[in-house]
Write a structure and sequence with these properties.
50% of the residues lie in helices and 15% in strands. By secondary structure, the chain is an alpha/beta fold. It has 2 domains: 203 residues, 2-enoyl-CoA Hydratase, Chain A, domain 1 (Alpha-Beta Complex); 56 residues, Lyase 2-enoyl-coa Hydratase, Chain  A, domain 2. Helix 1 packs parallel to helix 3 and helix 5 crosses helix 6. The longest helix is centred in the middle third of the chain and has 19 residues.
């Protein structure tokens, strides 16, 4: 659709998603959140898609949440002479639901982090499986400097980089570049220019291609259960999943390909 906030393209086993609100440095509006949620829903059971790449248009990843949406929620509440709490709650939770869907997406989620990577964009970077950061990108959690809190992203930031560093970033509202993002573990690869970004992205996708699709999905799901399921039970379940994987079509093909010294079918 022409009024869509997302540009979506399919290349082989990869879906490329471009956040497309250049007038606001790709800030996340409520409509963009709705579109992202619908996209993630459509990808949930699509086994032909093995990787999802999210980036922003015009040299910026995402500048956070759309302040205009918050202002509109306040204006509507005042016009209706009602408490604005429910409007702000729903707006904030809509973002949290998208973060959770992105975090648990069964495909490999790759973010290309350029320009502004702030607030909600910072949160989205923290739920990706692989992050590629431009050296001059600007990362940060500016919420407290605006008098609000990073309510829906803070838990994911803590999971990503640990409580100590997350507290420093959130409570000081610090801005930092791509090299620091890689050092902290927010991103994994550092790019010096646009050509470097494309090379790194191609390398990452080639590595995804070498991994069995169903094995990747199950491995990601297993990792997400760590800390949520008692360890003994988790290991029991994982052993059963391993036994099933060994006997599966992928497990058989992987073993045969290794013995025959050839790439497995999914890597060709």
């Amino acid at each position: 659709m022409s009024d869509s906030t997302l540009l979506i393209e399919r290349f082989g086993f990869t879906v490329h998603v471009t956040l497309n609100r250049p007038e606001s440095r790709n800030a996340m509006s409520l409509f963009m959140l709705t579109e992202l949620d619908a996209l993630f829903d459509s990808l949930q059971d699509d086994r032909s898609v093995r990787a999802v790449v999210i980036r922003g248009c015009n040299g910026h990843f995402c500048a956070g949440g759309d302040i205009k949406d918050m202002a509109n929620a306040r204006a509507k509440a005042m016009a209706a002479t009602t408490d604005a709490t429910s409007s702000f709650y729903e707006l904030n939770r809509a973002f949290g639901r998208v973060m959770l869907r992105a975090n648990e997406l069964p495909q490999v989620l790759i973010t290309v982090l350029e320009g502004a990577v702030l607030g909600g964009g910072f949160g989205l970077a923290c739920v990706s499986d692989v992050g590629i950061a431009a050296h001059n990108a600007q990362f940060g959690m500016p919420e407290t400097s605006l008098g609000v809190i990073p309510a829906q992203i803070a838990p994911f930031v803590v999971q990503r980089i640990g409580l100590t560093q997350a507290r420093r970033l959130a409570l000081l509202g610090e801005r930092f570049d791509g090299a620091e993002a890689v050092r902290l573990g927010i991103a994994h690869f550092l790019a010096q220019d646009a050509g470097d970004i494309e090379k790194l992205l191609n390398d990452v996708l080639n590595k995804v291609k070498r991994c069995a699709p169903e094995a990747n999905r199950n491995t990601k799901a297993l990792m997400h259960r760590v800390g949520k399921v008692e360890m003994e039970k988790l290991l029991d379940t994982a052993a059963l999943e391993f036994a099933a994987a060994v006997q599966s079509a992928e497990g058989t093909e992987g073993t045969v390909a290794f013995v025959q010294k050839r790439p497995p079918s999914w890597a060709q």
